[in-house]
Amino acid sequence: MSRKLTALLLAVLMLPFSAMNAIADEGDPDLSINEISFSDDSPTGGDTVTITAEIANDGGASGLMGVNTSVSFYWDNNYIGEDTVYVPGSGTADAEIDWRAVGGTHTIKVIVDEDEQVRESDEENNMEEEDIDVAYPPILVLDDDNSSNNGGTRTETDSYYIDALENMGSMGYDIIRVESGQDAPGYDTLSEYVALIWICGSDYQSGDTDITFTDNDKINVGDYLDDGGSMWVIGQDILYDFDYQDGARNEGDFEYDYLGISYVDHDRATPTVVYGVEGDPISDGVAYGADPIMVDFADDLDPREGFVKVLSGGGDYNISTIRTEDDYKLVFMTIDFSSITETEDRDELMENMVEYLAVQLENDVSLSRFNNPKNKETIEPGVMSTINVTVRNRGTANQADVDVYIDVRCRNDTDYRFMDDDTVSINAGEGAFVEFEWETPDDEDYEYDINARAY
């Protein structure tokens, strides 16, 4: 009984104390935000932008009450940090913070006295927002290694990649950290970048869990690569998560279709030296010492047709890295980049990877996707249907005359054929929707193949 009464008494006694700061008086000072400005109004992802917020203080009834206060900064509700400033009565002060910009349109939010440590006459005017447009850089680094800065517990590896990119000097890149167990950004975000570096580190969960590449990740990556994207994927246990059994991988498996794996031996370990392949654009002449910084479960691979060896333990022993450029550019690597022991070797490999994946052609137009109809979709016979495709200009030059063609053929009637074309203009780095009207034949239960091309 005594303990219960004491707890109740404490709660009652504490209430006036905790409520004290919340009781405002009209004579108290009022803090507000006059303006949010940026050191660069048109940055590119990876640039450092100084965000400045001008904080005003009316000084209260006397106009003379100065205040020390914290100022918090956010981008799209992601915390950047805070500054502390003294704002004189009837005056202003600038709070500042540096932000590493990320490509896209973002909302910068500033909150003065977020924790309500200052008693004010008006607490409702302490937040302001300002939008900023950030150009997309060539490369997106996806930190998906489930380490502490992702909310996980695995070995942190991303700093090795970032250091090597920084040592290149002029290469712009964004970093997006994928929260533990969550999906990475969707296709609309991925498609803005020339190349992706997807870091999975030592993340895994035994047996058909797809914890490193979620089901949504597979769909978005497939769409990105089908659109002609470029990608470097690194993870010693990605394949183990897909299927923990050693053996063949087949058409219809994501790792076969997109990562180029025809056979995998799990947990063969990282070679002490990884050797390149003569004439390979990434690994010609290299021999890198390797020593994993994590528990080592690197896999041994056999590439499917269309993929070739890049790095191995020598000859066809311990093939750890493969690549393709048939329909898209992809490098898949089962030893971690951090395992390469010498900084100079990591810098060289990063530069070779970036040059291979991210070099843009002046003229590079490709068909992106069918928006309508979808694959195997059923449509009504004898009606006007819309065929909608996306065409993307991945080159560095604007294209004024992009020719788009469609060709519809019937599997049940070889004499049937419908063709149409259109010409569109697409600026560098942008896409366009192109629509065609197709009057479907009256025949029911017929199947059609729709092909599209863009030049």
TrEMBL record:
It comes from marine metagenome. Residues 29-128, 374-450 form the CARDB domain. It holds the Pfam family CARDB. This is CARDB domain-containing protein.
